[in-house]
């Protein structure tokens, strides 16, 4: 019962942790790391809805991230749009493009979405590099303004940290509501048996398109937040390696688990920072840690954390019971 | 019952043909199922029984023919719309959602029984809670009905095979169908389980559901069916009461003869 209450209100704890964390950070550099970690969390929550829940793979998710980042940046700088308008355009464009990819590829059975998104990612990467007059080419696009809403500019890292993590909490809450609804059940049904799902009245095609566009929208939110934080975008941030990193975050964190998405994103953002101390060998150790995680935590970090939590709870309870017995004698 | 002749046409199909390349899986198949009755479909392996289910439920597109339920034209619709018109099925090779618990499977079966949209679940409106509560009651009732209530929180994949068959039935019942199509519900069950299944199917009919059952277990079929249709090589070779079918020389030659 107690653990149930704790579980249902875990998000309150998360809220408090997010609010208090900047107060205890050793230095401001960590604030930057946590902002980036927040962006990756948004990306991996969206991708987990698509991959972990509905079982549909996207191998080009970084392209939706990049598309919205470039769109809002270019509109603000080259076309002098107000920041909010560029942001809306960036979100709209990524969502629209994802819809245009989803409709033909999801009509076919099989892994056409994976192939389609893979190809799309490559195309976006080439365009960002080659359309130099618009995108700045390989050297990137500079001078993007900081985020400002209604005249309030979020220029300090601390302010931006709260903006990003407010977005994380909001999207996490909405996703949690989704997965605990009939749509969440329908997505998981599609994951194991599209046949049975459709026989029960689930419009599998429509649900797959919806969750794919939703996950692209999440990526787009991360993209606009990235552009107006770093104020500089370049193609390398949004290439194939980033798409693979996102997939790794989902799998490592735990498929069909929102907490897993958070853990996977934060772990893979922080790990390179921790490993920086051991120069030269960091890639090796990074790889080894990934392999070990996959071997010993097939259910992902989320399941590992859950087990550790349950184990410590039952240990605690046993101790409590033993103490009570002792007291009774 | 001649005062309600249309009842014979409650669930019916006619002229259904289906070809796979050169092979005719179904030729001019027709059926008429009375409301609230149990129609069995029997026939040797490869006779086209599952194909007929697949055609009715929209998984295969029939080359010719039409199917109606309660006046609605069903043929030509995709599976999810067939379900919307009140036809739900189970599968010969189980299609359980193994990534869910037992009750979650049944809640998914009630997908069409909840009336709320994205805004309701994203923002958890009162309507969301009301509908979910209603659905949960329905799911529990369906689980209780098939005898799986106690095991509702188990991962569905951990159920023994026989119980998984029952779970598929509970999941289908949660859709509150007008017609339920059961594809070999007794396959893989032991004698005791099969006897219980027979009781269960009669109780489903008492719920007001029309049942069509493909089944190889002749004892079961003869004992509980109202009418039996016999398919052989994609053609209907007999249709009648259990007694009539048992006496039918064509059937004995084509089907029963080789078994007994
Ligand atoms: N998807 C398909 N593609 C090609 N041929 C098919 C397909 N589905 C069924 N068939 C063929 O149609 C015929 C009827 O098969 P069906 O599965 O309907 O038989 P059945 O009566 O259900 O048999 P069983 O009792 O073994 O389940 C068989 O010859 C089968 O090989
Ligand atoms: Mg069959």
> How much β-strand is present in the residues of chain A?
under 5%
Q: Biggest sheet of chain B, strands in spatial order?
A: 6-7-8-3-9-10
Query: Roughly how much helix do the residues of chain B carry, as a percent range?
Result: 25-40%
CATH class of the largest domain in chain B: Alpha Beta
The ordered string of helix (H) and strand (E) elements of chain B is EEEHEEHEHHHHEHEHEEHH
Tell me the CATH topology of the largest domain in chain B: Rossmann fold
How many DSSP helices of chain A?
A: 15
Q: Give the mean pLDDT of chain A.
A: 89
Shape summary of chain A: globular
What are the bound molecules?
adenosine-5'-triphosphate, magnesium ion
Rg of chain B, Cα atoms, Å = 19 Å
For the biggest sheet of chain B, the summary is: 6 strands, mixed
Give the overall average pLDDT of chain B. Answer: 93
The total count of strands of chain B amounts to 10
Write down the domain tally of chain B. Answer: 2
- Greatest interface (CB-CB under 8 A), with counts per chain: A-B, 25 and 35 residues
Oligomer: heterodimer
Adjacency order of strands in the biggest sheet of chain A: 1-2
Amino-to-carboxy terminus distance of chain A? 28 Å
Summarize the helices and strands and which ones pair or pack:
The complex is a heterodimer of chains A (329) and B (260).
Chain A: H1 2-8, H2 10-24, H3 28-53, H4 61-77, H5 83-107, H6 112-130, H7 132-135, E1 148-149, E2 152-153, H8 157-179, H9 182-192, H10 194-199, H11 204-230, H12 240-253, H13 258-275, H14 282-296, H15 300-328
Chain B: E1 11-20, E2 23-33, E3 38-42, H1 49-56, E4 64-69, E5 72-73, H2 79-84, E6 87-89, H3 102-109, H4 118-122, H5 126-146, H6 161-173, E7 179-183, H7 191-206, E8 210-214, H8 218-224, E9 227-232, E10 235-240, H9 242-247, H10 249-259
Parallel strand pairs in B: 3-8, 3-9, 6-7, 7-8
Antiparallel strand pairs in B: 1-2, 1-4, 4-5, 9-10
Adenosine-5'-triphosphate (ATP) is lined by residues 20, 25, 43, 45-51, 92 of chain B.
């Amino acid at each position: 019962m107690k653990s149930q209450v704790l579980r249902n209100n875990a998000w309150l704890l998360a809220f408090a942790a997010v609010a208090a964390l900047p107060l205890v950070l050793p230095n401001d550099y960590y604030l930057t790391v946590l902002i980036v970690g927040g962006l990756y969390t948004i990306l991996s929550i969206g991708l987990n809805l698509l991959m972990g829940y509905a079982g549909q793979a996207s191998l080009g998710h970084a392209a939706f991230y990049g598309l919205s980042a470039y769109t809002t940046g270019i509109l603000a700088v080259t076309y002098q749009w107000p920041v909010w308008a560029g942001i809306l355009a960036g979100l709209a464009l990524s969502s629209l493009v994802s819809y245009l990819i989803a409709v033909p590829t999801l009509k076919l059975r099989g892994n056409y979405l994976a192939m389609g998104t893979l190809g799309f990612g490559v195309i976006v990467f080439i365009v960002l590099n080659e359309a130099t007059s618009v995108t700045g080419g390989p050297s990137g696009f500079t001078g993007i303004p900081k985020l400002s809403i209604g005249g309030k500019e979020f220029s300090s890292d601390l302010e931006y940290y709260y903006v990003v993590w407010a977005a994380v909490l909001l999207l996490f809450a909405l996703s949690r509501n989704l997965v605990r609804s009939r749509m969440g059940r329908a997505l998981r049904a599609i994951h194991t048996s599209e046949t049975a799902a459709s026989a029960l009245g689930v419009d599998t095609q429509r649900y797959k398109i919806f969750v794919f566009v939703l996950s692209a929208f999440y990526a787009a939110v991360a993209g606009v937040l990235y552009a107006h934080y770093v104020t500089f975008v370049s193609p390398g941030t949004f290439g194939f390696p980033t798409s693979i990193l996102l997939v790794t975050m989902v799998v490592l964190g735990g498929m069909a688990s929102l907490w897993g998405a958070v853990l996977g994103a934060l772990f893979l953002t922080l790990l390179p920072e921790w490993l920086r101390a051991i120069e030269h060998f960091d890639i090796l150790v990074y790889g080894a840690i990934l392999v070990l995680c996959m071997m010993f935590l097939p259910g992902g970090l989320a399941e590992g954390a859950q087990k550790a939590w349950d184990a410590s709870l039952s240990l605690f309870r046993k101790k409590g019971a033993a103490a009570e017995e002792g007291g009774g004698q | 019952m001649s005062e309600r002749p249309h009842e014979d046409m409650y669930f019916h199909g006619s002229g259904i043909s289906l070809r796979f390349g050169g092979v005719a899986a179904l030729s001019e198949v027709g059926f008429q199922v009375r409301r609230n009755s149990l129609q069995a479909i029997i026939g040797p392996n490869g006779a086209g029984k599952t194909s007929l289910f697949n055609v009715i439920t929209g998984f295969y597109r029939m080359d010719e023919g039409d199917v109606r339920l309660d006046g609605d034209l069903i043929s030509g619709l995709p599976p999810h719309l067939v379900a919307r018109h009140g036809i739900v099925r189970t599968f010969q090779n189980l299609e359980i959602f193994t990534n869910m618990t037992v009750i979650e499977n049944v809640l998914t079966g009630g997908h069409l029984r909840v009336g709320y949209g994205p805004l309701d679940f994203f923002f958890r409106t009162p309507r969301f809670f009301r509908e979910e509560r209603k659905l949960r009651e329905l799911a529990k009732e369906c689980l209780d009905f098939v005898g799986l209530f106690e095991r509702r929180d188990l991962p569905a994949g951990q159920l023994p095979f026989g119980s998984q068959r029952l779970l598929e039935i509970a999941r289908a019942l949660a859709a509150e169908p007008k017609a339920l199509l059961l594809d070999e519900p007794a396959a893989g069950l032991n004698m005791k389980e099969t006897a219980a299944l027979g009781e269960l199917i009669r109780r489903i009919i008492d719920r007001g559901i029309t049942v069509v059952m493909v089944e190889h277990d002749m004892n079961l079929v003869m004992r509980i069916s109202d009418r039996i249709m016999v398919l052989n090589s994609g053609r209907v070779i007999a249709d009648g009461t259990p007694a009539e079918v048992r006496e039918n020389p064509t059937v004995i030659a084509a089907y029963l003869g080789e078994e007994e």
